[in-house]
Amino acid sequence: MKKQILLLAFLSFGLFTACDTDDDSPDETPQINEELVGIWYIDDMIVDGEKIPYNDHEDCGKDYIEFNEDGTYRQIDIWGCEEDVDEEGTYTATDNTITLTISGNDVVVMDIVTLNSETLLVEGMDDVDDDGEEEVVQQRFTRE
C-alpha cells in the first residue's frame, strides 16, 4: 500500500509530455521553484474528494521525497526502519507544474494545487481502483 500511494503521486498520474523549444538563451539552468526545495513527507491522498491518510509504519518515520537545488530529486521509502532510495531523477518546477524525469527517461507532469512553506499538494488523473475510469487524485505532502 505504501508504494502504491507514494508512487501514485509521482509515477502514475499526470500527463506524459515532451516539449521542444527553440529558445537560444545561453542560460541552460533548469527552472526550479525555490519553495519546492527540501524534504516533503507524504501526508495523505485525496481520491474524488475522499481523504486517505498515510498510515504506513510511522514508528520508523514517513516515506518522503527530497527536491534538491541542483534540479535532482530522490524518493525515499522506509523499510524496516531503514531508508531505501526508491527512485531518483531530475525535475523542473514552475508555479503551476512539476515535471519529473525519472531515471530511465520516463516523464511525469503534475499540476501544483498548493505550494507554500508547509504544504505541497499535487493533482492528476489516475485509475486508482482499476475500474477502467480515471479518478481525480490529489497527493498532499508536508514539511513535517
Mind explaining what this structure looks like?
- With 144 residues, the protein is mostly beta strands.
- It has a single domain, classed as Uncharacterised protein PF14869 family, DUF4488 (Lipocalin).
- The chain is built from 1 helix and 9 strands.
- The protein has one helix at 2-12, and strands at residues 38-47, 50-53, 64-67, 72-79, 82-93, 97-102, 106-115, 119-126, 135-142.
- It has an 8-stranded antiparallel beta barrel with strand order 1-3-4-5-6-7-8-9.
- The longest helix is centred in the N-terminal third of the chain and has 11 residues, at 2-12.
- The radius of gyration is 15 Å and the shape is globular.
- Mean pLDDT is 78; it is low at 1-28.
Primary descriptors:
single chain; 144 residues; mainly beta; Lipocalin; 8-stranded antiparallel barrel; 1 helix; 8% helix; 49% strand; globular; disordered N terminus; Lipocalin-like domain-containing protein; signal
